[in-house]
User: What shape does this take?
Amino acid sequence: MKTGILIGIAAAALSLFCGCAPTMTVNGQTYTILTQSEEQELVTQARRLLGRPGKALNKEEVRFVQKTDPEVKIEYQGDRTGEAQIIWRTPEKIITMHFGGEFLTERMGWTFETEKPMPEVLKFIPQAQ
Assistant: This one.
């Protein structure tokens, strides 16, 4: 009897430790995804990389990146693997840090780009006659 209870407790504890990683299903495949704190670590790495001297950002833009929450887009292609975009939008510039590969490992690559925002497009709706 005691053995059965101990096995039950061990199984419950094991399921707690093994089953708590977040997952996402993409095209019928279920992948382990980053936790909120790991996503925040990606943002921290992006801020660190963009704040390095010699990048295409001026001091004001670096301050903006350090103080403003970005838009985070992640497309998973495997367990904790895929493409991530960390995006900051200023009135003058869109700053995007791209991460790709196995997130938060030495196999993760990165690039960044800046671009000017597109002007708002006016929508002309023809009037019915």
Summary: Residues 70 and 82 are 19 Å apart (CA to CA).
